[in-house]
Backbone:
DNA sequence: TGGCAAGTTTGACCTGAGTCAATGTTTCTG
DNA sequence: CAGAAACATTGACTCAGGTCAAACTTGCCA
């Protein structure tokens, strides 16, 4: 969610990251955060592993290096709704809060770059720039949540799926993965169930819609975790969005 | 949404507010904001009036003194989803952004206490405390949006209505309106249609659910804009929430 | 290398909430 | 105070997406 540096200022390397070829390790690219170097550590989780349960103490903040994680909320009878998605360069943790509000789960293999919460908070108070940046990021996050409200409240199952694929395609494009004109390949780091929890659907409906779109030639399913869009603009039209939320890729 | 002062530090008055008896005028109670006194102005809107349209330039930030406003998002075919609700003491506006992202409408008669955006932003850069407070408020807002995601994605029509009534009852309690034990009266500053747009339902479903609950003795409808809950805890149980989101009132 | 578990697809059926339409009730306004 | 406009209720009907159940893939690991 929270991305500690502007994407525009991406620098080449982060020499002691376990993954040298990683896309982005936001933490390491921020000059202010260099001062926390000594308290930095790395964590690795495998798909399906829970990182923190809602209500548990949360003693670190982190940045996603590779993989994907989700924040979920559960009702007593087990109904589950994903309320946040963490992709590479996203930030995990809420400064000033010592317990987690949501359950955080790795939905694919995941690498985190972590700082202990206390020194991070101290640094934040000392460097107004960092607080301003965090505010900006939180506001972006809030805007994303508001688009998500529209998706959950008013879109049809098909529009939900299309919106999600458009979102993922844009996200990959924004992180610099250039695609051949026309066809776009998307990595889907989610099971059908997790996808359903994201979209407020059942996993059966997700499967039916995805295979329906395949039958109509809008996309190809390559294995379970890869989708190839035949035509981005057609998918965008299908999503119900007007398209000015981002560039046409 | 954004509440510029801690509710716990509420001070008595705000002498040049048009509404002397108002509940809270957050702006006036913040010491930092006293420095913006000269650029402060007031605005009054009547129910149904639109304050800003999405995409329009937004030259001020404001605090709600009385009444209610909504942020809404619309799809091309007219489907509408409310994505934010502004109640007394909430903050309107996004520092750093010059155009409005969402349409803001007064859903009841409304009084705003406004500052021009530029001087407000300057002050924010100069006073880290204000930026930190704004960050904290935005994070609370984000948490609220996430509860809303669960509501839209996973709750039934009845649970949605119950959740909303519980939310309003708590909100009124938090703002200091003590209620007789047992029965709780709630002001409903929304039409059935606005309520439907908040909950991701149609206005017919809202009407049916509300009258259904009335028939079952869970609440009384006094006119169109007032609801009396017979039993808060029963309503809470109906909402599907586990109840630790706030005090039992 | 084969067997099992996790994940996925597909089918048949059902139901909660949407749609369309008519009627009732307030509340403005001239 | 009448008439209209806005808002709300109610009914009949439909259908998108949920539920339950069975079969099919895939990949893991023993």
Residues:
């Amino acid at each position: 969610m929270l991305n500690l540096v502007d994407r525009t200022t991406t620098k080449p390397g982060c020499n002691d990251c376990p993954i040298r070829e990683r896309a982005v390790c936001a933490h390491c690219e921020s000059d202010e955060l260099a001062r926390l170097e000594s308290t930095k550590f790395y964590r690795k989780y495998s798909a399906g592993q829970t990182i923190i349960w809602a209500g548990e103490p949360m003693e670190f903040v982190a940045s996603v290096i590779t993989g994907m994680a989700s924040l979920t909320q559960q009702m007593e009878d087990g109904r589950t709704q994903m309320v946040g998605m963490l992709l590479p360069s996203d930030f995990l943790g809420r400064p000033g809060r010592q317990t987690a509000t949501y359950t955080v789960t790795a939905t694919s293999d995941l690498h985190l770059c972590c700082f202990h919460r206390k020194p991070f908070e101290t640094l934040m108070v000392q460097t107004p720039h960092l607080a301003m940046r965090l505010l900006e990021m939180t506001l972006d996050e809030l805007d994303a949540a508001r688009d998500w409200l529209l998706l959950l409240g008013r879109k049809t199952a098909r529009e939900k799926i299309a919106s999600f694929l458009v979102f993922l395609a844009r996200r990959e494009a924004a992180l610099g993965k250039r695609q051949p004109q026309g066809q776009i390949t998307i990595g889907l780091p989610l099971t059908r169930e997790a996808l359903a929890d994201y979209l407020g659907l059942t996993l059966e409906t997700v499967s039916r819609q995805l295979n329906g779109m395949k039958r109509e030639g809008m996309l190809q399913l390559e294995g379970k975790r890869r989708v190839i869009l035949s035509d981005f603009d057609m998918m965008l039209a299908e999503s119900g969005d007007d398209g000015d939320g981002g560039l046409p890729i």
User: Anything to note?
Assistant: Chain B has two domains: 7-149, 156-238.
